[in-house]
Model the fold of this input.
Amino acid sequence: MKLNAQVTVKNTNFDHFKFKNSTFMISYQGNLVGKAIIIKARARARSTKKFNVTILVSSNNKISRNSQQLSSDIDSGIINLSRHAKLEGKMHLFKIFKKKKSAEMNCTMDVNTSSRQIQNLTFK
Done:
């Protein structure tokens, strides 16, 4: 299954935020089933940086094919997935000071396999 996501970094500060390469991970019941690299970039002062991420989600034998929960989820047509990403970087203040900052995202979603839609998107 291939998931396309738009990731946004909203910088409300008066100077830019430069962040390093990061990993966007998707897991099923704690098992990693997909990941993508978020390339390093810079969010300008008081603006939003948007970019698209494509993630190939596959169990690749990481989840036992005999898993009763996975079989049940596939039969029901709803698979619950978790997403996690953390951006670490530096905030440049008045082009003089550099302060280390990070932003983190955790959320869950249900993927409806029959309609190929995401449902119940919840951010923590």
